Here is the input.
Amino acid sequence: MGKAGVARLWPYLIGAALLWYAILLSGVHATVAGVLAAMVIPLGRDEGSSVLHRLEHALSPWVAFLVVPLFGFANAGVSLMGMDPALLLSPLPLGIATGLFLGKQVGIFAAVRLSVALGLASRPRGATWLQIYGIALLCGIGFTMSLFIGGLAFPGHPALAEQAKIGTLAGSLISALAGYALLRFAPAAATPARATVPDRDEADASP
Here is the structure.
C-alpha cells in the first residue's frame, strides 16, 4: 500500500487487524503483530501527510494516559507482606535488577559514543557526555516491557513471576534515582562566548 501511494489510514488499520488475528490463531504472541504492522506503515517525507505520524499522534494520548497506566496497574501488583529482604539478592530478581541498571546504561551509552566516534551521529547540541550518561541511566526504567516479558517467561510459576516483578521494580527504582541525581547535579554545558560586533559609530571612529 505504501508503494501504491495509499495515504488514508483506514486501509492500514484493516490490514493490521487482519494480521493480528492471523498471528493470534497461529499461536505466536499477538503483540508481534503490532511490531510488524508498524514496520510497514510508510513514514513519508512530509510530516503533515505522513500516515505514520498521524497514527502516532492520534494514539499518543491514549497510550500515555490510559494504556500504559492500565497495563502497569494490572501487571505490577506484588505483595510485600512478609517478604524477606534477602529475596532481593536471589538470582532471579538480582539478575533482572542488574540487567536494567547496569546492562542498559552500558549498552546505550556505549552505542551513543560509538555512533559519534564513527560519524554516524552527532552529540546533541548543548549536552555534555555526563548528561547523556544520565539519560542512559534513566533508560534503565524498564517498567512495562520488563513486566510483560517477565510474565511471558514464567507461565504457570507465580512465585517466579513475583520475583521477576520485584527485580523489575528494584532495577527501575535504582535507575530512576541514579539518573535523577546525576542530571540534577551535573554541570551544564559551557556555552561558547559570542563575538561582540562593534557599533557603527565605534567602527567609524576607529583608525
